[in-house]
Amino acid sequence: MAALGWLTPRRRSATARSVLAGEASAEAARKSSQDTQDETQFPVHGDEKAAAFFDLDNTVMQGAALFHFGRGLYKRKFFETRELARFAWQQAWFRLAGVEDPEHMQEARDSALSIVKGHRVSELQSIGEEIYDEYMAERIWPGTRALAQAHLDAGQKVWLVTAAPVEIAQVIARRLGLTGALGTVAESVDGVYTGKLVGEPLHGPAKAEAVRALASAEGFDLTRCAAYSDSHNDIPMLSLVGHPYAINPDAKLRRHARDLDWRLRDYRTGRKAAKVGIPAAAGVGAVAGGTAAAIALHRRRR
Cα(273)–Cα(248) distance, rounded to whole angstroms? Predict the structure, then answer.
């Protein structure tokens, strides 16, 4: 029987570390079980007062919609290589620095507006359909797409909320089967872009105001609604709703979400990408390409 001694429990007191390990394990199991229960109950089926609001860039889709749209316009000779290089540099700065520099953002907006000035709205809408197929369709995060579909399956309306031009946002929403999109509105007269904005870009607090206005018009109860974003700039929008989610969060949003016990989802691959807040492979490639283009342009000017 001595050989079976290993089957009998050892009589020894638990150390402080083993107690800590046991309590931590039990707490993790309890939280996991609670999370599973919560997931099965949300979104609530048939709740007509609830809706979901999704940021676009790096939440629903890898990268910036405006950047992909710019690539498509460049391919169609809407602007020159020099302008593309400048735009790529602005994208590289955003990804490397992890912050949105106001001067760079203003330059990007001015560039985009100057590019579309004089073109018909219908022309850009038609081109947007083509650009979605060329550059965007394969960049949709399956995990975030599944979250949006869960709301749709529950009978709820789902809206994109983005600083991207409303025309391209509407194309993406329609292709994904979503209800609609809130986006930045460029002024047009008789169906032709003037090169000016209506108000300001739908960014930061402006997103929250758009969601608030839409909820009021549609009769939604914001405490029963959900919002999803990757950026700390969208904390005003996330704070409006009863169910905020941090998706592929940047460092500031991750800390904020943990402090307030918001739910987190990260669909990026690679440890580094999770830390610095950019998509693996595709994001690094975009940074490298944009930086290289900017350096080449700088050398030519010298």
Answer: 9
What's the CA gap between 105 and 19, in Å, rounded?
52
What are the phi and psi torsion angles at 161 (to 5°)? -130, 110
* Active site (annotated) includes residue 55: yes
At residue 230, the 3 state secondary structure works out as coil
Closest to 92 measured CA to CA, from 243, 272, 287 = 287
Cα–Cα distance between 238 and 250 in angstroms, integer? 14
Q: What is the pLDDT of residues 100-148, one digit of tens each?
A: 555 555 565 666 677 788 889 999 889 999 999 999 999 999 999 999 9
Locate 27 and state its tokens: 């707490």
**Cα distance between residue 72 and residue 293, in whole Å:** 17
For residues 178-217, one letter each, b for 16 or more C-beta atoms within 10 angstroms of the residue's C-beta and e for the rest, the string is bbebbbbebebeeebbebebeeebbbbebbbebbeebbee
pLDDT at 278 over 80: no
Q: Which pair of structure tokens corresponds to residue 44?
A: 């609530």
What is the bridge-based pairing of β-strands 180-184 and 157-165? parallel
> CA-to-CA distance for 200 and 185, rounded, in angstroms?
8
CA within 13 Å, CB half, 42: 19
Please give the backbone phi and psi of residue 183, each rounded to the nearest 5 degrees, phi first. Answer: -150, 180
Question: Of the listed 35, 38, 55, 133, which one is catalytic?
Answer: 55
Q: How many whole angstroms separate alpha carbon 294 and alpha carbon 238?
A: 35
Contacts of residue 258, Cβ cutoff 8 Å, sequence gap at least 6: 264
Q: Considering the candidates 47, 57, 153, 266, report the single residue annotated as catalytic.
A: 57
- The pLDDT of residue 288: 32
Q: Looking at the predicted structure, is the pLDDT value of residue 29 above 90?
A: no
